[in-house]
Specification:
- The protein is of the alpha+beta class.
- It has one domain: SH3 type barrels (Roll), CATH 2.30.30.
- Helices cover 26% and strands 30% of the residues.
- A five-stranded antiparallel beta sheet has the order 4-3-2-1-5.
- The longest helix is centred in the C-terminal third of the chain and has 15 residues.
- The relative contact order is 0.21.
């Protein structure tokens, strides 16, 4: 797990919500979604309580690598892209 990876919360009030990993500690990760959890106040969550999706945002990983700030809008867009890729027929493009 590394910053920029997309995870699914498995436990707690935020169960079944997608988040982007902002920071990783040995037992914890800090996650944000740009909506309920903003980038300036990421949620501290035990790593065992999140599921890795296998998807990572190259755009966000690049911003972290360059030391640039990731915005809430960017997080929401990347999470939206992932959800749309899971079930594209649920959100028809007009």
């Amino acid at each position: 797990m590394e910053p920029g990876d997309l995870v699914l919360s498995e436990k707690g009030r935020d169960k079944d919500r997608y988040y982007v990993v902002m920071e990783v500690w040995p037992e914890y990760c800090f996650i944000a979604d740009g909506d309920i959890r903003k980038t300036d106040r990421p949620k501290k969550k035990k790593i065992k309580h999140v599921v890795q999706t296998g998807f990572g945002s190259d755009f966000i990983k690049k911003k972290f690598a360059e030391g640039l700030k990731v915005t809430n809008t960017e997080l929401r867009n990347e999470i939206s892209k992932f959800i749309n890729s899971l079930n594209p027929s649920a959100f028809p493009v007009e």
